[in-house]
Specification:
Elements (H helix, E strand, L loop, with lengths): L3 E4 L5 H6 L5 H23 L4 E3 L6 E5 L3 H11 L8 E3 L15 H10 L4 E6 L6 H4 L4 E5 L4 H10 L3 E2 L14 H8 L5 E4 L10 E4 L6 E4 L5 H8 L4 E2 L34 E6 L2 H17 L4 E4 L6 H18 L3 E5 L6 H13 L4 E3 L1
Parallel strand pairs: 1-8, 2-8, 4-6, 5-9, 10-11, 12-14, 12-15, 13-14
Antiparallel strand pairs: 2-3, 3-7, 4-7, 5-6, 9-10
Helix pairs in contact: 2-6, 10-11
Length: 362
């Protein structure tokens, strides 16, 4: 398959402000050229094709969520298991009624406060939402992204867009256009190259179908953020607090309610170990292990964030894994983050999966 690589970075206002553009006509021409490329990608989506595109969290691989045949192509391109539900992206909050029959005052407050943005809400689905989109569940995960390229693309396509991360299944999520090209060129119809993702980890997934709102996947929007808006408690899915693969004991009988709850995720090519403990001890142990393994002839990469730099860690983690893959390291040593902070907990959720839950305490 020939993949169209479409650079649309000029649509991003931040890029335009940071670039040296003195001529208003030149700036307008650049934006219009980017819009035409998005129109081309939207036609591909409307025609049942696959398009990778940037969001504020990670790059997504999109297809018409209401077209079963198109959605199946996502699973084929990614090598993704069919029981892994997809998140459906919309361009306007009012479009939520196409996907779910349930809207309560609490859900409306969540939408008003967090959309567009990195919060996915799990609700009961309408019958016409294909089962392949929802992993066979009677619920649908819905999000309105906060990225000008994503919103323009969804709006122009004229349909809700099912989009998991735009990577080969199991690999680190892509936060730069080149990551997507590396994984999916030749497997999808088009890739929109936008700016590097602003947040760097996937959206928070909040299940609103039970008695208590429950986070199924942590993200940059924390339980505390949500509780402040809804005026009530938010629970965490028990699987999130485990220090082992939550699908291991149930095996094939484990049904994931949200992306990332089952199967290997975010894995770099190298073996990875997390070092956990007091920060000075962690640094010393990483240096010791690095020296030991280098003397054995291994190339060692290190991921170590400063204490309380949780937002930076979220932004950089997946990109750092990708960079170390490119450098051809044999072993990755990563310093654990504090899970007492909501964002730190979210990054550690990805770090644990990346390392296959391999932890050394010091």
């Amino acid at each position: 398959m020939k993949t169209k690589i479409l650079d649309v970075r000029d649509l991003n206002k931040h890029n335009l402000e940071q670039s040296i553009v003195y001529d208003e006509a030149e700036a307008e021409a650049k934006v219009n050229a980017a819009l035409r490329k998005i129109d081309e990608a939207a036609e591909i989506l409307a025609g049942g094709g696959l398009v990778a595109f940037p969001t504020e969290t990670v790059y997504g691989l999109g297809a018409n969520a209401m077209d079963r045949t198109a959605v199946v192509k996502i699973f084929e391109a990614k090598g993704r298991p069919g029981d892994n539900p997809l998140i459906v992206h919309i361009a306007r909050a009012s479009n939520i009624g196409e996907l779910t029959p349930v809207l309560t005052p609490v859900i409306i407050r969540l939408i008003d406060n967090f959309w567009p943005g990195p919060l996915t809400i799990v609700l009961k689905k309408k019958p016409d939402v294909p089962d392949v989109t929802t992993g066979g569940l009677d619920t649908v995960a819905i999000r309105m992204p906060d990225d000008p390229v994503a919103l323009e693309l969804i709006n122009k396509a004229g349909c809700p867009i099912a989009a998991p991360s735009a990577n080969i299944s199991g690999r680190p999520s892509p936060t730069r256009g080149e990551h997507v090209v590396t994984d999916l060129e030749g497997k999808v119809d088009a890739i929109l190259i936008g700016s590097d993702c602003r947040i760097g980890i996937e959206s928070t997934v909040l299940d609103m179908t039970g008695d208590v709102p429950t986070i199924l996947r942590p993200g940059i929007i924390t339980a505390e953020n949500i509780e402040a808006v809804i005026g009530g408690k938010v629970a965490m899915d028990p699987a999130l607090n485990q220090r082992k693969d939550p699908s291991g004991e149930e095996g094939e009988n484990f049904t994931p309610k949200a992306p990332g709850m089952k199967y290997t995720h975010y894995a770099p090519k190298a073996e990875m170990t997390i070092i956990e403990g007091q920060i000075d001890r962690v640094k010393k142990e990483i240096e010791r292990l690095k020296g030991l393994n280098e003397r054995l002839g291994l190339k060692v990469g290190v991921i170590l964030f400063e204490e309380k730099e949780f937002i930076e860690a979220a932004h950089d983690f997946f990109a750092r894994l990708r960079d170390l893959d490119s450098e051809g390291v044999d072993l990755i040593l990563a310093g654990a983050l504090s899970e007492q902070d909501g964002v730190g907990f979210a990054v550690m959720n990805r770090m644990l999966k990346s390392a296959g839950y391999k932890i050394a305490k010091v």
